[in-house]
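Q: Structure for this?
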Amino acid sequence: MSTRSGRDPTSEVRSPAPAQLLALYHAHATEVYRYLSRLTGGDQARTEDLTQSLFERAAAALAQRDDELGPGWLMTTARYAFMHDLRHDRRERRRLECVGSWRADAAADDSERRLMMRSLMQSLTDVQRAALVFRYHDDLPVRQVAALLDRTVEATESLLVRARDQMRDVIKEVDDGA
Amino acid sequence: MEPDVHELLAAVADEPSPAFLSALEARLADIDLGRPDAATAGAAPAIEVPLAATSMPAGRGRWTGPRFVAVLAVAAAVFVAVLYGAAVLRPHRGVELPATATTEPSVAVVTTAPSETFSAIAGLYVGSTGGSGELVIFPDGLARFTAPNTVACPTCSNATAPPGTIEITLTSLARTANRGYVASGTITAESDAAWAAEIGTTPSEKPIGSSADLTVSPLGQLSLSFLPPDDVLIRAPS
């Protein structure tokens, strides 16, 4: 059996330099963390778990591959890792506590506006939030988002519409309460 | 008002904490993928990479034909790897994370770098409850532990008791095997000797001049030698 480089993997133990892994970490750890934070809705513990797991996967992948890993690999794997985590833990974590306490006058201040946005994101289900991240941050076509979420295209479109509607409703409710 | 999705997404794009980043970096630096057991286990690393950047087809019928056979083969390989490789791989999983990590009770000191200064551990460390107290470490090596003095006021609550203080002058600092720190020093001042003697699970004399040690994990969890082992102080964000 030979690899792309013509080497027999059974006759040679590949030993990637830790520097390669650390270089990947130094170049992309913050970016990856931010991306996973978007997916988890700012859940620090979950984001840290996923980030750690991702770089451990990168370490394992470096042991198997001849080519170097890049940001594309990291982001794609992060996406799958999040979905895997979501399927593994079926609980739909949803945090609504912040939304109700927010009032419209907060919008006058940028930091409070950000707080409102954060609350809105946290009020979504994991799947809704993932759909928004995949569609609008990653700019993936709906068909690919549907595949990631293991749903039909129609169901995914409906999911995106409902997520946007839910956020619009909260914003409207806040505005009406002003 | 139409929600701006990009603004919403940016609102939850948090920055990682320095403590997490340094702990993760330390973890990755310790990974030795060149070990024969990990690298030659064949399918063993596949446990770690089933989510790699492979393209997943959309729609129905993905579990038919050659793909199904391939999936079965991978699953069998993973199963075998789990059976034979789990014990070997276990130490490489589960980096200490803030939610679960605890400071190691016994610390293997590996280096004593002359360049280490107390600035590396300087800061405020607080307990998880009101009665746990807090410790401030100054860059010059002075450490001040403060907690409610319930000996001076037995009827007081933690909130109303007067503060008791123990000052420790640290004299040595060393790195530990898990990239934390261990520092040693002596108690140089006490606000109330009777109260100081009562601190900890086993009341003991802690007169001025007696030794005191502290360990700090890479994630900023600190334990003091005269406090109960599970009474961990956490470094407060600066």
